[in-house]
Amino acid sequence: MAIAVVMDFTGGTLEQYDQVIEKMHFTPGGPGAAGGLFHWSTATPDGVRVTDVWQTREQFEAFSRDQIGPVTMEVGIPGPPAITVYDVHSYLTAG
């Protein structure tokens, strides 16, 4: 089942987010991680919010463990994000 994941990186900056994307070898507007269906980010009053839709919770958890955690620490984002996960009822794709 698809899930939506909202990650709030308190104290993070968009500049750090851009460094994370670069270190993961992604390009804004390009394809994302295997299993990821959709991704967007924004600044918030206290940091950065990233919202994803993933094919499965397991794919997200593996990517979070192997990529998000280590790379966000590497660029200096303070602490792990607050994560909220939702079951997705439906989603649409560009076609």
Your description of this structure?
By secondary structure, the chain is α+β, with helices and mostly antiparallel strands. It has a single domain, classed as Alpha-Beta Plaits. It has two helices and four strands. The protein has a four-stranded antiparallel sheet. The two termini are 21 Å apart. The mean pLDDT is 96.
What tags apply to this protein structure?
Alpha-Beta Plaits, 29% helix, 95 residues
Provide a quick synopsis of the model.
InterPro entries: Dimeric_a/b-barrel. By secondary structure, this protein is of the alpha+beta class. It has helices spanning 14-23, 57-74, and strands at 3-10, 36-44, 47-54, 82-87.
Domains (count): 1
The main β sheet shows up as: 4 strands, antiparallel
The CATH architecture designation is 2-Layer Sandwich
Q: Give me the CATH fold name.
A: Alpha-Beta Plaits
Estimated share of beta-strand residues: 25-35%
Radius of gyration: 13 Å
**Spans of at least 5 consecutive residues with low confidence:** none
CATH class: Alpha Beta
Task: Count every helix, treating DSSP H or I runs of 4 or more residues as helices.
Answer: 2
Strand order of the biggest β-sheet: 2-3-1-4
Order of helices and strands: EHEEHE
**Overall pLDDT:** 96
InterPro entries: Dimeric_a/b-barrel
Protein name: Antibiotic biosynthesis monooxygenase
